[in-house]
Amino acid sequence: MSGSRVIFVYNANSGAINAALDSAHKILSPKTYNCALCNLTYGIFNEKKEWLRFRESVNKLSNLSFEFLHKDEFEKNYKSKWLPKYSYPIILTTNQGQEIEVLASSLELSECKETKDLISLIELRLKKHNIEL
């Protein structure tokens, strides 16, 4: 399905101060950091290499686009009275009609232990939605 988009919404707010606080939280108390998506895609300061390779390969090899937003950016950009309340982090997808569907819930993301688990989950769910990589 061309024109599809995958929207990754982190359980964090945007901005440099928030990024610094999140990094500090990951260092000081990693077990209580509450964004599984961030833990799976980023180390303390940089994007994880395995995730970066996957993201770049999708970008080069498919018509699928990835969009990465913090929860405040998502709620601002997609504000609608019909938008359901989501638990963050979450991965969503849009179809050609721009309808938003859940690709992977917050709970499912929390069950991923490693970056490769996240990548496998995304690939499986895209296949179920008939979206080719």
Structural summary, described in words:
The chain is α+β, with helices and mostly antiparallel strands and 133 residues long. It has one domain (5-128). Helices cover 44% and strands 17% of the residues. The chain contains six helices and four strands, in the order βαααβαββαα. It has helices at residues 16-28, 36-41, 49-61, 71-77, 106-111, 115-128, and strands at residues 5-10, 65-70, 90-94, 100-104. A hairpin with a 5-residue loop joins strand 3 and strand 4. The longest helix has 14 residues, at 115-128. The N and C termini lie close together (10 Å). The model has no long low-confidence stretch (mean pLDDT 84).
- Termini gap: 10 Å
Strand order in the sheet with the most strands: 2-1-3-4
Structural class: alpha+beta
Q: How many strands appear in the DSSP assignment?
A: 4
- Count of discrete structural domains: 1
What's the mean pLDDT score?
84
Strand content: 15-25%
Total helical elements: 6
Roughly what percent helix? 40-55%
Largest sheet, strands/sense/barrel:
4 strands, mixed
Low-pLDDT runs:
none
N-to-C order of helices and strands: EHHHEHEEHH
In angstroms, what is the radius of gyration? 15 Å
Query: What coarse outline follows from CA principal-axis ratios?
Result: globular
Reconstruct the topology from this structure.
Blueprint: E1 5-10, H1 16-28, H2 36-41, H3 49-61, E2 65-70, H4 71-77, E3 90-94, E4 100-104, H5 106-111, H6 115-128
Parallel strand pairs: 1-2
Antiparallel strand pairs: 1-3, 3-4
